[in-house]
Amino acid sequence: MKSKTIDFSKFSSLRIGPIVEVALIENDVVPQGHTIIGAANNILVSPTPPPLMILSKEYDFIALESDGLHIGAATPGGRVVSFCKKHDIAHFEYLSKLPGTLGGMLKMNAGLKEYEIFNHLIAIRTQSGWKKKEEIEHGYRKTSINEVVFEAVFEAKQGYSQDRYEMFNQMRSNQPSDPSAGSCFKNPPNDYAGRLIEAVGLKGLFQGAMSFSNVHANFLVNTGGGTYNDALTLIHEAQSRIKREFDIDLQCEVVIIDKNI
Predict the structure, then answer these.
(1) Annotation marks residue 183 as catalytic
(2) H or E element at residue 151
(3) Is 44 within 8 Å of 232 (Cβ atoms)?
(4) pLDDT category of residue 173 using cuts at 50, 70 and 90
């Protein structure tokens, strides 16, 4: 089995983590007992991670076929948007502002507002074969996907919209520029995680080099040299304060990768 060396302090969007040998998934062969990492855009990797794996470049593809738009799970969102613009395909404009690759987006049903990756999904291909969208439980930032996704097929409708593209760009214009994993917590029903974090006094508060950003409170940012323990401390502190003051169980959107969890 092939592997590649990844330095997560450079590879992950949070710029936190050790140097690890990661198994490569090729020819649909998935090593047992490994955790998939995708593009590491919403993960916090501990100094002691479990065995890890990542899709090889063979899963980075886009093909317009008779049954829809086929996209490999290792394909970055930006590449999908470029393809759809070139071929006048609608409903993928928002991916320009979602970091990462398709597999991770599918796993968490990523999106912006009411635009979600599952909206125009037809089916996914996994270790156990093709699964139709109707066979997969999904909701706000969650799905029942519990195996490696190799590719997906989507509806391919004409109508790429530059106006929608610009709208999504504007929606994310308030994101901090420091390394982060995107939104740290899911928004609870009828409220916003950022508002709650600010309300309990954590916006802009530092733990080491980590903080909840002054630009957007729901972004846990690394201002340079932040550690796993610093990040975890802030995550737990936010959950504890918000539970105590508002009786809300704030759910983490960042995936914590540790062999003991």
Answers:
(1) yes
(2) strand 149-154
(3) yes
(4) low
